[in-house]
Write a structure and sequence with these properties.
alpha/beta; 176 residues
Length: 176
């Protein structure tokens, strides 16, 4: 039986992504817990960000159980969107790990593979008794507009160091 997956990615179903495409194939023969985005940047006082914050606050802490066979369990984490703040990172680690351990116990998941598509997932590495860590690098996060580049670069380096396997979506990303 293939290992179950805990996936840290963008918000499930929000827009097509290579991570969602890959996981759509992998979820056919294993259970998947999808953790919606933790955030890569600090929110700004713009209408777009305020709307996004309101949406995230409404969903925060909710867990969507699969309605059909093969669909993932989707977690909307309770976290502080401050990727460069050490206090927020420590708090987020405790909150995320505690929630994931509870879902794992409820669903009978033992030693899943942690699949990280976002550098912010690094804070959970080692906190949920995962079998292995896969870093799927599908973007150059350090060059995305609005991202806290310094913080994301540090997080990505930590994740690359701690991952058992690194997969890259392109040669350019692999060379990075």
């Amino acid at each position: 039986m293939p290992s179950d997956l805990i996936v840290f990615g963008e918000d499930w179903g929000a827009h097509p992504s290579s991570t969602q495409h890959l996981v759509s194939h992998l979820k056919r023969d294993r259970r998947v817990v999808w953790v919606n985005s933790i955030g890569l940047r600090r929110p700004r006082p713009t209408l777009r960000d305020i709307g996004r914050m309101a949406q995230k606050l409404r969903a925060m802490g909710q867990t969507t159980m699969p309605t059909a066979a093969g669909e993932p369990i989707v977690l909307n984490p309770r976290v502080l969107p401050l990727p460069g703040n050490p206090i927020a990172r420590s708090l987020n680690r405790r909150l995320l790990a505690g929630r994931l351990r509870a879902v794992m116990a409820e669903r009978g998941l033992r030693r899943p593979v942690l699949w990280a598509s976002l550098p912010t997932a690094v804070d959970v590495v080692g906190a949920i008794d995962e079998r292995a860590v896969v870093y799927y690098c599908g973007d150059d996060f350090g060059s995305l507009a609005g991202v806290d580049h310094d913080a994301v670069t540090v997080l990505e380096a930590e994740l690359a160091e701690r991952a058992d396997l690194i997969l890259a979506a392109s040669t350019r990303l692999a060379e990075k």
